[in-house]
Amino acid sequence: MQEIPHIPVLYREVVDAFAPCQEGIIVDCTMGYGGHSSLLLEHYPSVHLIGIDQDPTAIAFSNDRLQPYSERVLIRQGRFSDKIIGIIEEKGDQLCGILADIGVSSLQLDQRERGFSYESDTLDMRMNPDEALSASEVVNLYSQSALEEILREYGEVSNARKVAETIVQRRPFESAKELSNAIFHLMPKGKKIHPSTLVMQAIRIEVNDELGELTRLLDAIESSAIKRLRVAIITFHSLEDRIVKNRFSKWAKNCICPDDAMRCTCGNNHAIGKVITKKPLTAQEDELKANSRSRSAKLRIFDIQRGLSK
Fold first, then answer.
1. Which one of 30, 132, 140, 187 is least enclosed by Cβ atoms within 10 Å?
2. Could you read off the pLDDT of 211-238 as tens digits, one per residue?
């Protein structure tokens, strides 16, 4: 087996999340380098797995890494929001679980030629290198107001206006390192993360439409007719976590009448399941020490139970 390029976050929690899936199919929507997928296949020998990823480098690696389980694995390349629709239509109630680890993989961050890191000599950030939009277009061609909105909404950058103004004044930029150096003096210091991290995060989310991808995945699950399904989603910042939390709350809500309604007239039977994690699961102390990137990870789990006794 090839050398494992990164440690999957919340690995114990993910395996435990799918304990009800003793058979059937688990879809790993963000397969990456096969970390979570290999653990699930190892722990649940009767489970089959469909892995999705848009990064051809990750696909090639995972094809080799998951070779010992090849009879139980199917890998599909593309955006998970597109592929999941066909998988749901094709497999239906054979599916027992869906996992999504939202965000960039450790290896993508570490490969400077991919342009994800503030130390990169390129300005790319595409998870799928064949996509048209790259970080270079966002940084060098977007208007100042568009950049400001991205930085504020996706990076929660407190001085987004000033940062966007500086980017526009000093562009064009050829590399993420050059961009980071240009805005470094504007970013808050003293935190555990690099001062430019939130800016890079915002640009990456825009390039890959990460929040849109997450929303479309949740939409596909919600509109499906699957009777029982364990859904586990790992997020790394508050915007993603809020989307998942709010959607899970909606799915667990029986009454959908307006808040000011005098009495329930909707039937009080609209819940499609229950929230398993009232609060998100986070990394345990030993994992935090071994893998610093796990400190921001949050796992939320929902159990879909359509038409079944709750």
1. 132
2. 999 999 999 999 999 999 999 999 998 8
